[in-house]
Amino acid sequence: MKSIILLTLSTLFSAVAFAQTSSPSVPAKAEEKVNIVAAKTEVASAKTEVVTSKSNLAAAESELAAAQATLDAAIAQKADKVTIAAAKANLATAKEDVKAARKNVRVAKEVRLTAKEEVKDIKKEIRQTKHDVAKHHATHVR
After folding, report:
1. CA distances (Å), 15 to each of 10, 23, 116, in order?
2. How far is CA 32 from its chain centroid?
3. Could you tell me if 133 and 27 are in contact, meaning their C-beta atoms sit under 8 angstroms apart?
4. pLDDT tens string 52-67
5. Which pLDDT score is estimated for 72?
């Protein structure tokens, strides 16, 4: 899961770095389309990651509930100390898993938001470029 998030972030930052280092001259239509398609693909990938991380969170919360029930049952049945200690350890692990899953959801949402902003920036750049080309063309026509 972390590797997917890191891959998504690295891809996004590569796209940003490329966009910043590309020449300010008028980009070709094909390049514009490639950039916007890549950015939209990044948004879709980030959305999938959000859904996956939410699903993982639900599973972790289910495991936490099961671990709590197991501990409660062990205490109610007056199980031996080893069984109760194992149930407590499982509960602690489940709590850590839920905490990590919540963090993954937050990170996935941040990645998606960043990707959406990148799409907006690319669209804004395309509009500005078209405006500059039209303005440049109008100036030279006179």
Report:
1. 9, 14, 13
2. 24
3. no
4. 999 999 999 999 999 9
5. 95
Identify the top-confidence range among 29-38, 47-56, 125-134.
47-56
Question: Which 3 state secondary structure label does DSSP give 80?
Answer: coil
Query: What separation, in Å, do the N-terminal and C-terminal C-alpha atoms of the chain show?
Result: 58
Considering only residues 86 and 28, tell me which one the structure prediction assigns the higher pLDDT: 86
List, in sequence order, the alpha helices (H) in the chain.
2-21, 29-76, 81-141
For residue 106, the one-letter residue type is: R
The mean predicted confidence, pLDDT, of the chain is 84
CATH of domain 2-13+29-141: 1.10.287.620
Tokens of 28: 């070709």
Per-domain residue ranges of the chain: 2-13+29-141
Half-sphere exposure of 63 (CA within 13 A, CB side): 18
The region that residue 78 occupies, defined by phi over 0 for left and psi between -120 and 50 for alpha, beta otherwise, is left
b or e along 30-53 (b: 16 or more beta carbons within 10 Å of the residue's beta carbon)?
A: eebeebbebbeebbebbbebbeeb
